[in-house]
Give the backbone structure.
Amino acid sequence: MQPDDESDVPLELGTVGPTPVADTPETDRPTPRWRVWSGLGAALIVGAVLGVVANNARNDAAEYAEVDLVRGSVDAEFGSPLSSNSQRLYVNLINTGPRELEILSVDVEGFTSLDDPEGGGSVTAAPGEWVRVGAVVEADCGTRPPGTLQVRVRTASGEQTVVVTGQPGDDQLIWAWQGGCETADGTGVYVGDTRTVSADASGARIVLPVSNGSEEPLTVTALETTTPGFTMSTDPLPIDIGAGETVQVETVWTVTDCDGAAQFAEATVAVNIRNESMDTRVSQPLGNPTLIELVRLAVRVCET
């Protein structure tokens, strides 16, 4: 038998699938995957770049707006052309921030700002530089200053107000405030920052530094609390205080009325004074350490 020659010819099946149409538009053909992924990659890169730019812009804006000021000493000046109850404060500030800034004004808590007869003006502070900023003020004798300043500044990003606190144990603003109040009511006596010796439910032993800021000696004939809900006993009185001197007076505070102690908002004492020209009685507010200690005492006594 002869082999069939046609059996050696491969079978041609033709094109598998739909027959292409010659006039099919190019846009109807499927997009290659590499083009899709390259387009997505480009979009992601653009988005990342824009995100980095926006983030850098925010960081730059925050850095330009950053203000770091530290308060130094405070000097007070009395006399013409100021009124009898006014004084000029000179506050020393150092710019510890990264950029130059302009100090426009300073408001001191515990004082009322007045118009400066000399016009004043802004002060430029370079990084790491101490500057001296003046302000004409009048002491608010009913508000003991916490040592805090409200400083209005101008930076590359605009104007803002920042809070600048004093250093622990810094009494310089208290002295300036007391000096202003001395000018106002002529007594010269004031109570400085207090110190707690001991405290428990039986009472709190608190030392009051009583100073004579006048130019003549005086005698403290009585010292009593005017703080609701509390009573206070003291070292034996009267006490003589020379001009410019300070006497440490130890007191013992106890709670006598829990309702009153639960409502008081300020710790105050009344001081009876006698000097060569007059007898007078003045009220003196005490600082936050005393207020906190009395709140603790009230909690020990009234909530146990």
Remarks:
- Helices lie at 33-65, 172-185, 258-261, 288-302.
- The domain at 188-302 is CATH 2.60.40.1230 (Immunoglobulin-like).
